[in-house]
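Students often ask what a 'structure token' actually looks like in practice. Rather than answer in the abstract, let us consider HNH endonuclease, a protein of 449 residues. Its sequence is given first.
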Amino acid sequence: MTPLTHTQDSTGDLAGPWSAVSCTDAELAARIQELEKEMRVLMWEQLQYIAEADHRAIHTDTTARSLPVWLQGLLNIDPRDAKTRVTVARNVEDRRTLYGETMPPDMPDTAAALSEGAIGLDHARVIVNGIRRLPDYARCHQVTEVEATLARYARTMSPRELEKLAERIRYLLDQDGAHRNEENQHEARELHYATARDGMTVIKAKLDRETGAKFAALIEPLAAPRPEIDGEKDPRTAGQRNADGFTALLDLALDHDGTPRTGGQRPQMTISINFDDLKQSLGFINEDGMPGTLNTERAITAQNARRIACDAEVLPIVLDGDSLPLDVGRAKRTAPTHIRTALLRRDGVCAFPGCDRPPGTPEAHHVQHWVDGGATDLDNMVMLCAHHHRTLHNQRWDITMHDGRPEFIPPPTVDPKRTPRPGGRALPAQHREHLRDLIPAPRDPAGES
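Now compare that with the structural description of the same chain:
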């Protein structure tokens, strides 16, 4: 290996690793790889010294109560890192008998891979932990085979992937123990939620692996990044995407017929708000109206109450000026199943122009709002994904119906000319239009020969 060279300035002092600046991309990548290998080899050498320090109980001459604590102070590293180095060192050291004969390490394949720089300390930690978690009979009779297998795959796998493989091996060799672990996980399950002072809900959970797998399978597609639009990537953070996916998951649950009912009704979110505030036109901050109240006793703006009331089984309890119940939202404000089916057939998941939202939980939006007398029917509703539903309300897009299909009129801030944009259509409808000219016309029975 060629060491990284330094140049000298006019005073003869080292000027720095200028070769890193002058090398090609290929040389840069190769040197980074070489240095990683060198650092791994040096780590293996350090582990040999740590093992010797362990044999000498060098920490007893200090105030440290154990070798990991002594090493932590010596190297200024985290306790977990110090404990890992000591544990690995004890398994990969070159041992010697009382007569000076060299004995192979407890984990010879792992030691060999470390000494070659083929694997790092994290790989070795995974292997050591994987061996320690094997059942007693496997540690007695199959440890050599298991260690060799893990060390071999460690040369090509990341530590995280190697950890999954080690777990699979443990499940294979200790199925009873693995089942007990899963039962213990189920017993340790917990989920807590509370409302913070700012009104946000805080959720903390520990799920057993089965429940966790269900959760991941459901939320991952719902939390996927939105496709790029004109080269612009989804601006949401991973946390925001997960929160949006969780919201969609809740919508799916609320919309499911199997959701438990109370008093004959499905679970509902209620909003208490003054009728005039709900009808207030949205556009300027002073016209948003007084806030409403959710069933969690937390406030919600009139603007968001109006958006939420477009769809989902929300029960708006409209209050008069004395905050007394004035009316309860009509049940037919929410699009029934047959109308939602027709909307999905006409609009797809989202009718907004250019939307390529993955399948999720679309929301039925009233073109003329329900509180303004708009009907819950096909000619007054469009399907929108949650993102574009919020966009439409926040940016004040207008919608008109043309030949039974929605057209979206952007606000002046998006398009000063406010040119109408045709709404998207479900693919089956597009396919029928594309193939219409290819469908043979019915033959006239009189013209048959």
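One point worth highlighting: Residues 16-185 form one domain. Ask yourself how you might have guessed this from the sequence alone, and why that guess would often be unreliable.
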